[in-house]
Amino acid sequence: MTPLKFNPILKTLVWGGEKIAPYKGIETEQHHIGESWELSGVKGNESVVADGPLAGRSIASLVHEYKEELVGKHVYGNTGDEFPLLIKFIDALTDLSIQVHPNDELAAKRHNGSKGKTEMWYVVDAEPGAHLLAGLTQSITPEEYAAKVADGTITEVLARHEVHPGDVFFLPAGRIHAICGGCFIAEIQQTSDITYRIYDYGRLGLDGKPREVHTELAKDAIDYKVYDNYRTAYTPEENEEVELVSCPYFTTSVYDLTLPYAKDLSELDSFLVVMCLEGSGSLEVDGETVDIKQGETVLIPASADDICFVPDAGMKVLTSYIK
């Protein structure tokens, strides 16, 4: 199989901004684009191949046909015909709702066998003073949580993190969180669209009606523990692979390149997703060259044996796969 590019799925949202289209070089009159789903196996929102001999094919049909050749033997054995990651760019003009996601066990129990949602954020850009909410600053009980949602004080017990480009946050299922205004983020997550909206500041949706909240559903999904640090620490290095997050659902690394970098994929037994965050260049995969530029995402099939990232003047990419 050859590397694949997909048509982005643009989501107009009440909190969305106007950065995604120019960042990705897309011409559109659509405003308030909050999310660009780069690669999605979510039913009803399945990515479609943009060009080449497989143009027009959905990711679901490709996984069904090519199986381990596309995603890897152990990946296909675990997740079957559903592509297991959802890859996004997110542009928050204003604050998103405060939310939490269920784990696999709770999601399967409540949502007809669905997967939970563990995710991570990589901050691509941030306005001065921009921040995120992730985790608790003090221990509360489920009853105290419900009371704080009811009286609008839930934000008082959430950890607030000022952010800058390059910051990373790992968000296991159960962690309360919110992306806030001024943040432009790359998000990698399990294939799941289950979100429990805890609190939405009394905001109206694009239809002019209050958005649904899921206060009671969230109560059993929340991890009420307080942790010492909610950021993911790493040491940036040029022209090296720097692993950011490794969990059962994905392993993500960043490459900040001014020189070519080769990686052996022969023992990976997984697809590799490449998101270009800055600059441009090419990917040489088993002797085939694919151009890539800022805002583009490429899926490298599990059958690939090697890849070389070749920057033009410079290129920053994120890669994700499943161990």
Please explain how this structure is put together:
By secondary structure, this protein is mainly beta. It is built from 7 helices and 21 strands. It has helices at residues 20-24, 59-66, 68-71, 73-79, 104-110, 142-151, 215-219; strands at 4-5, 9-17, 33-39, 41-42, 45-46, 85-92, 98-100, 119-126, 131-136, 158-162, 168-171, 177-179, 183-190, 196-199, 241-246, 251-257, 261-264, 272-285, 288-293, 297-300, 306-321. Strands 1, 15, 16, 17, 18, 19, 20 and 21 form an 8-stranded antiparallel sheet that branches. A 6-stranded antiparallel sheet has the order 2-3-6-13-8-11, with no helix packed on it.
Name its key features.
six-stranded antiparallel beta sheet; eight-stranded antiparallel beta sheet; 7 helices; 323 residues; mainly beta
Helix and strand layout, with pairings?
Layout: E1 4-5, E2 9-17, H1 20-24, E3 33-39, E4 41-42, E5 45-46, H2 59-66, H3 68-71, H4 73-79, E6 85-92, E7 98-100, H5 104-110, E8 119-126, E9 131-136, H6 142-151, E10 158-162, E11 168-171, E12 177-179, E13 183-190, E14 196-199, H7 215-219, E15 241-246, E16 251-257, E17 261-264, E18 272-285, E19 288-293, E20 297-300, E21 306-321
Antiparallel strand pairs: 1-20, 2-3, 3-6, 4-5, 6-13, 7-14, 8-11, 8-13, 9-10, 9-12, 15-16, 16-21, 17-21, 18-19, 18-20, 18-21
